[in-house]
Amino acid sequence: MQPRPRQTAFVTRFNEALTKHGNTLGLAPTGAGKTVMMALAGQKMPKPALLLQHTIELVAQNSKTFFKVDRRQELAFFTADKKTIARQGWTFGMMQTVVNHIDDMPAFGSVMIDEAHHASSDSYLKIIASLRKKNPSILIGGVTATPKRGDKKTLKTVFNNVCDEITLIELIESGFLVKPRGYVIDIGVRDDLKGVRKQATDFDMDEVAKIMDRSVVTDQVIKHWKEQAGDRQTVVFCANLAHARHTCEAFQAAGVDARLVSSKMPEGERRDTLADFDKMNFQVIVNVAVLTEGWDCQPVSCVVLLRPSSFQSTMIQMVGRGLRPVDPERYPGVTKHDCKILDFGTSLHTHPIEVRGRTLEGKIKDCPACHAELPSQCPECPLCGYEFPREPLSPPLDGSDSEQDEKELLADFVLTELELFDQSPFRWEELWGGVVFMACSFDSWAAALCFNGEWFTVAGAKETGIKTLAARTEKLIALAAGDDWMREHGSPEDAGKSKRWLTLPPSDGQLRALNMTAMQAMGMTRYRAACLMTWKWADKAIQAKVKAAVEGVKAHALAA
């Protein structure tokens, strides 16, 4: 598996900070490949090593990725059903099981904490204290997308530095997330919301509910939603449970199929409701804070904010629920080019989505409040919450001139497909005047192609067969999907950019397969010939995949 360049930089900084400080926290949002980076960083961490996570789903996901990154390493599981230790590798431990058997744990050389914002809870602190007692030199690393906690506990009890932060903007610019299109819609409550008290962890949400939980406000919210995003799968974030319940009822009264999820629901009922939404059996899901963490539903293409956000990280958590591209094989007939953010609660005013520049040089700064080392791009300290003075930004988005606002929001998305090609370990061949871009190695290939003005990605590998990776999307997203596929399934040792065979003339066998003479193939490379041969072999399958994606959209539209 070949990591993206940004993942490589993250892993390098993570390991360097571990060596320097004995601990470190890394920040990586949805779409960054957090588990891949943990697995890569873990290769250099002292063994035996423990990976802590708090759900059995994360145990399965993390162990699968660690194995894919290095199939030779020893893996073991310490969960309710299995209790084994990897003496020379990684033990995947359920936090709840580990804390109940902490005396049975060996002297680990290192520990990695997934969803590391949980690290300052009592159970994690008990585990860390015991592990440190058994090995005072143990290295402690953590990765999270959301360092802010709902209580007043600081992560400084575990970490004294942040090694790196991958931002949403970097992933959007690189084609790994769709673009957000933000609308701040003033329905006459903005001044009232500005007067809400700011508590230790967030605004007083009961006060927010008194302002927002009124039928005259909710009716305006639904009116604007129908105008801007009435055909989109939507997640709504409310101030408190009563507000969420009343908002859900208002959507239903307006003829919209909406349902509520909350922390008060039985776990099975909540799981079934989320599964129904993922299957698109209803259109709008309303919640308070249940869906800010650990929930990704790719068809979501609208996020409605009915509450302000004290911290930028909270706002990004909510916005991030709608930014994942759609897997066309998992969701046939579903297309997604962007995500609309309808902000009725001043979050985008308070924390504009900044699109000016990226900090990739590894520069650091010190937090004046807790003295932690931080990446220079952090607008606030992830460990203690200190907010750095902000430079003036362009005016926030305003729904009164949405077309101009979108231009302002997205004006600085500058990464082009040429930069993606430069960063890729594989050579991408442009075929037929740029209608198709193709990369291949001996056991895998990927093709990004334009059909009727929209882009599709179809790929294949020896062990997987042929799959559709992206459908009816933008060129950069299609290319990014193909490049990620090649990084996972292709071998640069077979087809890296620097390999000599790529630039040799076509072989006699290739010429015969392509039905070309040496004169007709003048100037053609062996790699280009390999791409053309792959296309010729997979042509019918590629056309069938594209046709199925297009017909699936038509069928989905008719069903709707």
Describe this structure in words.
The structure is a single chain. This protein is of the alpha/beta class and 560 residues long. It has three domains: 5-166, 3-Layer(aba) Sandwich (Rossmann fold), CATH 3.40.50.300; 172-356 and 393-410, Rossmann fold; 417-559, no CATH class. Helices cover 37% and strands 18% of the residues. It has helices at residues 5-21, 34-42, 56-69, 95-100, 122-134, 168-173, 190-194, 205-212, 215-229, 241-253, 267-278, 312-320, 347-350, 402-410, 417-423, 475-489, 492-495, 508-514, 526-559, and strands at residues 23-27, 49-53, 75-78, 90-94, 110-114, 139-144, 162-165, 179-184, 233-237, 258-260, 284-287, 300-305, 338-343, 364-366, 373-375, 429-431, 436-440, 444-451, 454-461, 465-473. A seven-stranded parallel sheet has the order 3-4-2-5-6-1-7. β10, α11 and β11 form a beta-alpha-beta unit. The longest helix has 34 residues, at 526-559. The protein is globular and about 80 Å long. It starts with a helix and ends with a helix. Mean pLDDT is 87; it is low at 354-360 and 392-415.
The CATH class of the largest domain, by name, is: Alpha Beta
Helix content: 25-40%
Average pLDDT reading: 87
CATH topology of the largest domain: Rossmann fold
CATH architectural category of the largest domain? 3-Layer(aba) Sandwich
Brief summary:
This protein folds into 3 domains: 5-166, 3-Layer(aba) Sandwich (Rossmann fold), CATH 3.40.50.300; 172-356 and 393-410, 3-Layer(aba) Sandwich (Rossmann fold), CATH 3.40.50; 417-559, no CATH class.
